[in-house]
Amino acid sequence: MLLLLVAAHHSMADDGYRLWLKYDLIQDAAQRKAYLNAAKFIAVSGNGPVLQSAARELQQGLKGLLGQAVPMASAQGKSGGIILSVEPTANDSGGALGKEGYRISTDKNNIKITGKTEAGVLYGAFALLRQLQTRQPLEKIALASTPKIEYRMLNHWDNPDGTVERGYAGSSIWKWYELPERVDPRYRDYARANASIGINGVVINNVNASARYLTAEYLQKVAAVANVMRPYGIRVYMSVLWAAPKTIGGLTTSDPLDPKVRQWWTDRTNDIYKAIPDFGGFLVKANSEGEPGPQDYGRNHADGANMLAEALGSHDGIVMWRAFVYKANSNGDRFKEAYEEFKPLDGKFAPKVLVQVKNGPIDFQSREPFHPLFGAMPKTPLVLEVQITQEYLGFATHLVYEAPLFKECLDSDTYSKGKGSTVAKVVDGTVDQHRISGIAGVANIGSDRNWTGHPMGQANWYAFGRLAWDHELSSQAIAEEWTRMTITTEPKSVRTIADLMVKSRDIYVRYTTPLGLHHIMGESVHYGPQPWLAKAGRPDWTAVYYHKADAQGLGFDRTATGSNALSLYAPEVQKQWGNPQTCALDYLLWFHHVGWKQPLSTGRTLWDELCYRYYTGTDSVTWMQKQWAQVKPNVDPELFANVEGRLQKQYKEAVWWRDACVLYFQTLAQQPIPKPFSPPTRSLDEVKSLVEIYQLRK
Ligand code: BDP
Question: Which Gene3D superfamilies match (predicted)?
Fold first, then answer.
């Protein structure tokens, strides 16, 4: 009996593999019946592969949610079913549906899912399933949606040897050694998950690229992956190594203006399209962090990007050229470097080139001002790159829901064409009327059974996709939707979990880098605090370069009296951040060196405010633990315990961050820890020795 009970309990445990596509039986019988009435059959007009995926997903989803199979049938003379149809000339009420948009309407007592393309219908099928998963009514359903951004991409930083740069969820999901003969069924589940949130492109390999993917052997493997992605409306892209003509092509140069080099890329590109007819294009990291690039030959980024655009020729592909660059020799402020290299090239890029810009000017910190290139390159379509994998956000240990971070950047006003020229509108092309637009998220996906290591990391993958589709969705709405689909539909628990998620990023910022501190994390590994780091491979890899703490105060003066990086922004933005008296406290130390005893708008001095944030931020992790404890009755036990354990660890590490930072800054500020907080119980040396243990992980 006991054994049986244990077994029964075990079979219910949720290992997270199914992500937000669980399709568990709806427990409320009345609700189930209402849905069944509207889903008596599925009819498909057409038989393209993407349409087939839509029908298959609906069958699988409805069977799980409703507890019985919904048959495929012809709609002739029937009602109460779901009809999928591609209508190239379809219009929605407001205007034309975009090529990937969908419309769900009620037509003669049937639910009709229409799109101009098969992909549109597939997105509509997922949208309909989402209605059931979140328990919305289906009567008189009328929804229409078109993605605001055209290229919605995941960037994998995966290497051929199966490791993942900055990956915290196991190894790469791509098993190159098995491909192309064995195709892991997991690839299809990956494609389903992406399609369900509208992602339509995946760069399969690391931006610090290996040339190997361009070899005939690997092209067959990549083609096998592309074959699995295609029926889900997803195209495959590659990161390329700039030096490939030399390393694998046997040429003596990789100069983009050399005719032999150009021919080599054209030939390779043609090879790729032979193997993968719908190949998406190239992503390039060049002349950045030691990677080769056109500057090695005295050429610029536009020369390099345009050469690849030329190689793409009449193939339907694009070049995404990254602006994440900083010079080998760092004099000055790294904040300004990408701007200085790229701004003069605006207007020089070929039409197939998009420049891919990180959300902030430094490097995926927990809070950054928006990158000054947004709004500064009106003639060039810019791809916004965000990092989903939590390199600077506590890996897969800390619970940090990233939608608020993404939104903060998307909603920032660049003022480039007057008020309302937000980063979102620069990126989606509306501000400067671009024909193409893109957004990319560095994936947090790995071979762990639950894909993302931290179970709540799934929400970051989900939120990225939903915002890539529609940047106007709110963080709160996405958190609630994901929670309902993934964890529980019990209303109070949904609210508690979504609330915890939405607040989690600010809490993380408070106990790690409050008030605009940045880049004070552990060297290379990028984990834990190391604000005392004064020596590294380059000055701009240290912490002291960024916080500039001294006996007088703290923070990087980027106004005219300092590096003047602030001058890269529009005058309205300069005004918003230029005065330390009025600059939002969240950005204060990004732009100002502030005296320790300087009173802030909160009434506390800088030193007291800093301590206040480190201490209350840490205490907030206890609050997160309490919130999580409350939802226990409504959450799968395996999932509950997983998150509970990680939160315990997160608390311990919040204390580590707090102690390290207040003790270190105290050596310069020479101020006591303000009441009611108690000084750390350990010494700075003790905390420093913890970092050394972490550094062994390098
Ligand atoms: C940094 C990562 C490094 C990446 C680099 C990039 O630490 O591993 O290669 O970004 O985006 O944040 O190229």
Answer: Alpha-glucuronidase, C-terminal domain, Chitobiase/beta-hexosaminidase domain 2-like, Glycosidases
Spatial separation of the C-alpha atoms in residues 161 and 199, rounded to whole Å: 26
Beta strands 553-554; 594-595: pairing state: antiparallel
326 Cβ below 6 A of ligand 1: no
Does ligand 1 have an atom closer than 6 angstroms to the CB of 208?
yes
Q: Would the CB of 525 count as within 6 Å of ligand 1? A: no
Do 616 and 651 reside in the same domain of the chain? yes
Shared domain check, 465 and 514: no
The token pair at 252 is 């003596």
CA 442 to ligand 1: nearest atom: 11
Which of 8 and 114 is assigned the larger pLDDT?
Answer: 114
Q: Which residue bears the tokens 């408070």?
A: 510
User: Given the structure tokens 């490939």, which residue do they identify?
Assistant: 244
| Residue type (1 letter), 298 | G
Q: What does DSSP say about strands 42-45 and 281-284: parallel, antiparallel, or unpaired?
A: unpaired
Q: Is residue 11 part of a domain?
A: no
Give the number of the atom of ligand 1 that is nearest the alpha carbon of residue 206.
9
- In this structure, is the dihedral angle defined by the CA atoms of residues 596, 599, 605 and 607, taken in order, positive or negative? negative
Residues 157 and 137 reside in one and the same domain? no
Distances (CA, A) of 501 to 16, 365, 454, 457, 487: 18, 19, 13, 11, 13
> For 667-695, how does the pLDDT look when each residue is reduced to its tens digit (9 = 90+)?
999 999 999 999 999 999 999 999 877 77
Atom from ligand 1 closest to the CA of residue 207: 13
Nearest to 508 by CA among 471, 460, 565, 552: 460
Predicted structure pTM score: 0.97
Element of type H or E holding 259 = helix 259-275
Q: Do 474 and 601 sit in the same domain of this protein?
A: no
- The CATH number linked to 537 is 3.90.1330.10
Residue 64 has pLDDT above 50, yes or no: yes
Helix orientation angle between 186-196 and 458-469, rounded to the nearest 10 degrees: 50
Biggest alpha carbon–alpha carbon distance for the chain = 83
Regarding the beta carbon of 464 and ligand 1, being less than 6 Å apart is answered no
Report the domain count for the chain: 3
- Token reading at 281: 């294009």
Positions marked catalytic: 289, 363, 391
Domain carrying residue 625: 510-556+593-695
Task: Provide the 3-class DSSP secondary structure of residue 334.
Answer: helix
Q: List the end-to-end C-alpha distance of the chain, in Å, as a whole number.
A: 49
Ligand 1 pocket test, pick from 164, 324, 383 with the greatest ligand atom count within 8 Å of Cβ, gives 324
Answer yes or no: do 117 and 208 share one domain: no
Task: Specify the pLDDT at position 4.
Answer: 43
Residue 319 phi, psi dihedral angles, 5° rounding: -115, 125
